[in-house]
């Protein structure tokens, strides 16, 4: 097992995530603080996904992080002191970050969600919570921006789920598409595992993409004008992931054949356009 990066900046760089690009929209101090917060999110997610750890060890490490949100203790996880500093500085509640950890704990068993409401609860924990904490670091004036963060979290995570259908199946047989939706289109979990479904799979993915589009629309509608400038980093992410969703749809959701992504120049162009508009 490779040794993990030892600090927030190294963790963020190693992730090669679009989030790191969005950080460029922030002033230096907030950029550093968001880098620390993103590193925390990355560490928590990596614990749940690390194939070299037993379920018992994953549970123990996540429990250590829950404890570390409230108090320091000998042998606490790296970054714990910095994360508590962010919580104190920006008023980020421990119970909010604990929900993120609970979301990652949901990944410790093979994921199955009967309904879209159940999946939306998962998305709230692993994505909307990240948004709610991030906007505290961005700085906002209108409480309605919290709704923007929640809806955007749903949109981004739903897009991730569609992109990663094949990857998630390979990672312990995880299926995040709601089982009621699979049944609606006559597809079984076994069909997905065998990469079968034919035209019905494309119809299912288009159905889920329409849900994601609804979340994107709700997010944009919820963003108050007075907070559009401070939410530039979040808007970069919205535009990048929305473009990714549309790219998959235009290509017929061939997620078993390719891993969809945007090129670096395309993402830079999106970021530049968002910043120029602000």
Task: Please supply descriptive tags for the structure shown above.
Farnesyl Diphosphate Synthase; mainly alpha; disordered N terminus; single chain; 0% strand; 14 helices; 278 residues
Q: What does this protein look like?
A:
It is globular and about 50 Å long. With 278 residues, it is an all-alpha fold. It has helices at 8-15, 18-22, 28-49, 55-70, 80-90, 94-105, 116-138, 145-163, 165-170, 179-184, 189-193, 198-222, 232-250, 264-277. It is built from 14 helices and no strands. It has one domain: Farnesyl Diphosphate Synthase, CATH 1.10.600. The chain starts with 7 loop residues before the first helix and ends with a helix.
What order do the helices and strands come in, and which of them pair?
Layout: H1 8-15, H2 18-22, H3 28-49, H4 55-70, H5 80-90, H6 94-105, H7 116-138, H8 145-163, H9 165-170, H10 179-184, H11 189-193, H12 198-222, H13 232-250, H14 264-277
Helix pairs in contact: 1-3, 3-5, 3-6, 3-7, 4-5, 4-6, 6-7, 7-8, 8-12, 8-13, 12-13, 13-14
